[in-house]
C-alpha cells in the first residue's frame, strides 16, 4: 500500500516529553513531504496552539492541514483558509458553565487567542496555557460573559474525580454533544459528530483520497476514532491501553522517535 497522508496527534505523539519535535522525526516528515506526502496535524489544541509546529514543518510553504479542537476546525495551511468549522450553540453556554459549578470542577474555553476561565490559577488551566502558549483571562461571571459561539469547553479536575463527573455530563447533555476525556484531567465538550475521524473523512473527500492511503498516529482517548478509521492506525508505545488495543501497529514511544519509525517502516521501506 502506498500511504500518501500521515495524520499526527501532537502531545504524546509528534512531540516528546519536552513538547518538541526531535531532529530525526522532523527529518523523516520533511522527506515524506518532499516526496509528495500530505501531513495533517490533528489535535485537541486550539488552532493558535498548533501553528508553531505547523510552521516548524513548513506546512505554510509546502502545504498541509491543521485539525484543531479535535476536528472542530480544519485549516488549509498554505492558504490559511478555514475549510470546516463547527461550534457549540450559544444557547448551550450557560448550561455547560453552570454544570461545571454544580459538579465542583473548573472550566475553560477560548476567545480569540486567549483562554478564558473563572479560575486562572488552576494547575490544569496553567497546563493548557503552557502547552498552547496562550495567555489566560480570568472571568468572574462566565455564565454572563460567554455570549458568543465557542468550539469547545474543557472541564478540569484531578483524573479520578473527573472520571465520576464524565458520565453525569454525558447523561445531562444528551445525544447532541460529544463528551470525552483527552487527558485524565481534561473533559472535552464539543458538538455531536465532531471528532478527528469525521473531520478527516471530510478532508479525504476534498482531496480525492481514500482512508486506505492514510496513516493516523496517536496516544490518547481522543485519537481512538481516527486510529480505528485510518487505513493504518498507529498507537505510540506510551498510548493509553484502549488506543494500543485498537491500533493496527504499535510504534516506539514519543521519546524514542516513534513517528520516524512509522515512516521508515511503512513508507520509505516500500
Q: TL;DR of this structure?
A:
The chain is an alpha/beta fold and 270 residues long. The protein has eleven helices and 14 strands.
Q: What would your notes on this structure say?
A:
This protein has 270 residues and is α/β, with parallel strands linked by helices. It has 2 domains: 5-86 and 194-266, Rossmann fold (3-Layer(aba) Sandwich), CATH 3.40.50; 90-191, Hypothetical Protein, Haloacid Dehalogenase-like Hydrolase, Chain: A, domain 2. It is built from 11 helices and 14 strands. It has helices spanning 23-34, 47-56, 59-62, 93-103, 123-132, 142-145, 159-173, 196-207, 224-229, 241-246, 258-266; strands spanning 5-8, 38-42, 65-68, 73-76, 82-85, 106-111, 114-117, 135-138, 153-156, 177-183, 186-191, 214-218, 232-235, 249-250. The chain has an 8-stranded mixed sheet, sandwiched between helices. It has a 6-stranded mixed sheet with strand order 8-7-6-9-11-10, sandwiched between helices. Strand 12 (214-218), helix 9 and strand 13 form a beta-alpha-beta unit. Helix 1 runs parallel beside helix 11 (258-266). It is globular. The termini are close together. The mean pLDDT is 95.
